[in-house]
């Protein structure tokens, strides 16, 4: 059994490109996570990517609970030897993220 989910479609407002990639770098620190979102995959005002998540981490992401994110993401940064994301940024990303079916249909091509 895999430790990874199927790819999940994730979107953020394009103005959060840098911050979204900081988060992606923590989720996928070994395989170019810092380049997950790009202007090449910006449709309208959203940046969209299809991302596999560790199965034990996906439920936390999907719940989009800002307090859970604020507690877990700094621990994730520490575990992979990366700089932590400021709590205000974590909360902004949590509130702004769209997942799978919450992404408007005009963005389904990403």
- Please give the domain count: 1
What share of the residues does DSSP label as strand, in percent? 5-15%
Shape descriptor reads globular
Sheet with most strands: strand arrangement: 2-3-1-4
How many β-strand stretches?
A: 4
Low-pLDDT ranges: none
Based on the model shown, name its key terms.
15% strand, globular, single chain, 110 residues
Structure write-up:
By secondary structure, the chain is α+β, with helices and mostly antiparallel strands. It has one domain (8-103). The protein is built from 4 helices and 4 strands, in the order βαββαααβ. The protein has helices at residues 17-27, 58-63, 66-79, 87-96, and strands spanning 8-13, 42-43, 46-51, 98-99. It has a 4-stranded antiparallel sheet with strand order 2-3-1-4, with no helix packed on it. Helix 3 crosses helix 4. The N and C termini lie far apart (27 Å). The model has no long low-confidence stretch (mean pLDDT 89).
